[in-house]
Amino acid sequence: xxxxxxxxxxxxxxxxxxxxxxxxxxxxxxxxxxxxxxxxxxxxxxxxxxxxxxxxxxxxxxxxxxxxxxxxxxxxxxxxxxxxxxxxxxxxxxxxxxxxxxxxxxxxxxxxxxxxxxxxxxxxxxxxxxxxxxxxxxxxxxxxxxxxxxxxxxxxxxxxxxxxxxxxxxxxxxxxxxxxxxxxxxxxxxxxxxxxxxxxxxxxxxxxxxxxxxxxxxxxxxxxxxxxxxxxxxxxxxxxxxxxxxxxxxxxxxxxxxxxxxxxxxxxxxxxxxxxxxxxxxxxxxxxxxxxxxxxxxxxxxxxxxxxxxxxxxxxxxxxxxxxxxxxxxxxxxxxxxxxxxxxxxxxxxxxxxxxxxxxxxxxxxxxxxxxxxxxxxxxxxxxxxxxxxxxxxxxxxxxxxxxxxxxxxxxxxxxxxxxxxxxxxxxxxxxxxxxxxxxxxxxxxxxxxxxxxxxxxxxxx
Length: 462
Description:
Blueprint: E1 4-5, H1 8-16, E2 24-31, H2 41-53, E3 60-64, E4 72-76, E5 86-90, H3 103-115, E6 126-132, E7 139-146, H4 152-162, E8 164-166, H5 194-221, E9 241-248, H6 249-259, H7 263-281, E10 292-298, E11 312-318, H8 326-343, H9 352-356, H10 361-373, E12 381-385, E13 392-395, E14 398-406, E15 415-422, E16 425-432, H11 440-459
Parallel strand pairs: 5-6, 10-12, 12-15
Antiparallel strand pairs: 1-4, 2-7, 2-14, 3-4, 6-7, 8-13, 9-16, 10-11, 13-14, 15-16
Helix pairs in contact: 1-10, 6-7, 6-11, 7-8, 7-11
């Protein structure tokens, strides 16, 4: 893989980063040992290193370039050493003891601390940690990827190169040979023809017009004095805390079948209800304005997960925490998301990523911190869904039992929520500023309780 300029949105993510606001996303993958026991940690680290080394993107690092001014590019790291990116962290036996809740609470606390640390910018921007406890027990792999390196779908594609797919009895074996001979591509001139020139010009005009519309929407949607939840607007301490929640996928499906809409509508409603429950348990007054969620939308075409560059847009959604009726919360979320989808992911204030594609590299280099500080004027919390393949995954014969995605915190935000479906469960990773939300585990339990209550309320509807 040769030199490749960072796409505009990737460059924005690269320059948005600071020591207190690292711009990496992550995932905590938890594995259960098979009956015969898991391989030793040295064998697991060796396997992770071999798999990672075979992924060309993970051997690339970012360097500044002369042209375009303010730009940066991916270069192959000639001194690449996978051992710089892999670390084993052994949990003390007393921390992972069953009386303390077992392996997961200790691994989750440690993962939160590891997420605080920015990635080293002089190396390919990723890290993996093998987290293990007592021999013969479960273990976890924490993966950290800079957002300039991957969005959610590309992170999944990278994970597919690290982990193994468990073949089912009905699965068709992979063939090493291509299914069909590729068609020859006729030679093309590098000179664009008249029609191509016209098409490029028309596309550029459409892009600029779309960006102008998004900019106008941003001005209208901006809040100079947001009256949201105090905990979601607290100043940054640079610390990180992680909590996890698990929902039954069948619970989500039953609610969707009864109420209509989509599974994502249900999950967004559960997050809203969980926030309401958590605020009331803390003794807080409900905010004067419902908190706004930024809900990312992938613009990546199906089958193009490996394509370079982040391809994202987003919707803005008011989370109806002031509504006391779970059914009405669900209806409000469904109607708001229907309006967002009718307008499309390239319109409205949530499509702020569209503006990044239209800005020159120099603007990203010097304007990213200013834009980052303005994020709190637009939204209060990020809520993102990461699609996983339906197949079961494993590592060295150890089945993957859970995978908790983790999103980066934007400047001015104290919490981000990421959700993914694996097997029969919906796994939720909550990342927060450790000082602003020291009771993040309580919020995770509130989200789980809210899903059960929503099912109960929806089931009683005529």
